């Protein structure tokens, strides 16, 4: 049994839940109340010294980073549909995983954290910076989907779950990109049962 330390408004935790649900892997959620600061508690810091969500516990194995967790689950459970073995397809998956984490995620955090969760105390400069970045990033994502149903081909992979979790997060701030390729792709991701089950109940 896998144990996932989780918060429903963490896009990084939701992508892992999406895969667990899609693959039918047994797991247990341990709620970490980020809104109450539990991610900084000594108890959670002993589990994840980075004080971030999620963390996966699998017996003696403990993994902190969401994309590393996705890869681990795919390799352990032989989920080659979600993490293809073909070199070219795998390279595309890796590219979009890194792009989502290194380029897209910071812009999403700037917008959503400050516009939604911080309320009147949100940093307006950070919001503006995030929105400016999204102009470029949306164009890159739209172009990447121009000739593909999904980011790495004709079926979804963990890259789609990861990037899709970020795009859903933008929806909390009414900031999902409007390009047709992105909208159509996001509709396909949103139709996945595992993706739907990962969403916060209020969504």
Largest sheet: 4 strands, mixed
| Secondary structure: helix percent | 55-70%
- The spatial strand order of the largest sheet comes to 2-1-3-4
Overall number of domains? 2
Query: Would you tell me which CATH topology of the largest domain applies?
Result: Glutathione S-transferase Yfyf (Class Pi), Chain A, domain 2
Unreliable runs: none
Proportion in β-strands: 5-15%
How many β-strand runs? Answer: 4
N-C termini distance: 28 Å
Structural class: alpha+beta
Quick structural gist:
Helix 1 (11-23) packs across helix 6, helix 4 (87-117) packs antiparallel against helix 5 (124-144) and helix 4 (87-117) packs parallel to helix 6. By secondary structure, this protein is α+β, with helices and mostly antiparallel strands.
Key traits:
2 domains, 8 helices, 4-stranded mixed β-sheet, 203 residues, Glutathione S-transferase Yfyf (Class Pi), Chain A, domain 2, Glutaredoxin, 56% helix, 4 strands, alpha+beta
Q: How would you describe this protein?
A:
- This protein is of the alpha+beta class and 203 residues long.
- The chain has a four-stranded mixed sheet.
- Helices cover 56% and strands 8% of the residues.
- It has two domains: 2-77, 3-Layer(aba) Sandwich (Glutaredoxin), CATH 3.40.30.10; 87-192, Glutathione S-transferase Yfyf (Class Pi), Chain A, domain 2, CATH 1.20.1050.10.
- The mean pLDDT is 95.
- The chain is built from eight helices and four strands, in the order E-H-E-H-E-E-H-H-H-H-H-H.
